[in-house]
Amino acid sequence: MTSFRKRTVQKPIRGTRTSPHTAQVITSSGNPYLDVVIGGGLPMGSICLIEEDRFMTHAKVLAKYFLAEGVLSKQEIFLGSLDDIPAEMLRRLPKPLTELETEVEQREEEHAGGGGGGMENGLRIAWRYNDLPLVNSEHATAKIGHHFNLMEQMDSMMLYYANTTMWDDSHKEADIVIAEEFSKSSSPTSCSLEQQPVEDAPPIPGLGEGITQEVKPQEENCSVNNNSVNNNNNNSNAALTTSTKTGGSQEQQVFHNARYGGLLNDIQQLLRDESFVAGTKKNLCRVCLTSLGSPLWYDENFGEDLIKFLTLLMASVRNCNSVCLITMPMHLIAKYDASLVPKIRQLVDYAIELESFAGSEKETHPAFKEYSGLLHLHKMSALNTLAVHMPDTTDLAFKLRRKKFIIEKFHLPPELQESPKPDNCNAGILSNSNATVSLDF
Asked: What residues have CB less than 8 Å from 128, skipping those under 6 apart?
């Protein structure tokens, strides 16, 4: 009897691969240039924070990349926002490019930036660092992620079959209809679906009778809620009525703002699905929260609730197959309370700041004319590894072109044309009639 056993290789989750450097299961952020910066992709169970620029345009582009990659990889998507309409944001996701279109686009860029016979001989000149391979051969051979065209929108049929869950803290029926257009599961934004009793659920064959049966339990619940509010002595019933809107009484006790409790409860309910259990390789959930901590979230206990929410969110994301991308207006949070900035960065795994040149002096400076802004890496965590991946340089800049979002090494142009300045200054000194010093040659 031999001890030979046939090796069984378990298939990885769709849209993921094992990193050759850290042996972690990583997934693409949607932008191939951002994947290079963070070491190939986002590790499973990590939270990436994108600090928005002052005009909040570039961070939303990276969020669309993140969502479009999840739709194309057939992964579960959770999108929550108060500033944006989730359904409208999903409609405007970029269109994916085929492999042939990607190769054609790369060849066109090489020929457009060649200039002369340098490219015919296979040579590259000094100012063409962006055409050099940004990754080594190990990253180049592994196929992960996709390329997208920002000029065109994704096909509506792809969005229809995508597994999406949207949250915008809205209880309007119109938002529920929009959510069901792109999602198989019901949207957690509906308050009437949460308050509806299970035993009074409408039967499947009789749809007309079910509509009449839905109205009666809701009217009874509303009357019970009004009676409980009028009775000042019955405090327990009032707590129960508020917990039905937020999704649980436990979150209502933790947060002063009920929106944090409702958002966290919806995320945890989605992550409790058996397909996202840690250790199983069934599916991956992408959680995207845009403009978290904006003025729409402000109240008296804003800082306390935000720190609690990020702490509980990290615990939820760590314990399942999921990745999270958060965009926050950090410049507004710093004005509200500067001490919150280091605390927030401590509760995430990746903290990336986008500094836009729009509206600043750098926009017209000749050294920055080729770029749209600078990219600052404030934090990169070693998640389940001994050493963290560090890029070749931290001097990074980004360009927002018509079709794509590019991140590359920041370098100065070959000539800034500042040589005439000293000549003009010397000429002015020599031609000054009030000068008391005589020059003898």
From this structure: 113
